[in-house]
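Shipment paperwork, digital attachment
Item: protein structure file
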Amino acid sequence: MAENYPQSRKLFSAPHKSGYYFSEDYKILCKSTPISKGALPSYLKTCNPRDISMPPKLWLGWNMGSEADFFKYLDAHSPNSICYDDDDGQRCPASFCNFSRSLRKRCGISGANEALLEVAAVRNEHGEPTLALTVGCNQFGCLPDDCITKVTEYVQKGEASWWLDIRSWHWQPGPDTDLGRRVQEGEFAVIVPQAH
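Attachment content:
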């Protein structure tokens, strides 16, 4: 786990003195992951769309690896979740949704909590894109601890950790701010430099 980070800087701040991000910076920032469930700093938990600067999206869950790795996991732990494409007979990614759905039933997760147990695209500690079985994120909330415990017992991959989103890996203007709206409308592309 990457929990030995400098306390004087916010995690996932732009790694350059200019305070701006470059397109490949995720490769540097991902080295700060995974972060264990209880070690996420409070400033990364607060995601208000009206804030001038929102933290990157972080997913709480288990890195399942590549699609091929995830299918190997399903072969061993949930072969009934695997579905095949009608045209070419190949395994299809809908299998991952089937697995999430079966976990919801098995663990008694229902109602609004259902949307929190999903498969998300994340970056591993090397910056590579992978899939994660997630039980929430810092922007939308997480499943209650008792549900996370049930999922943890079933998944058998240790404790859940925080992983950086594949796209929203940087601090950015809140979408409900004037700057955020202007960026969304395509007026200009900017990523807010971080205050330290």
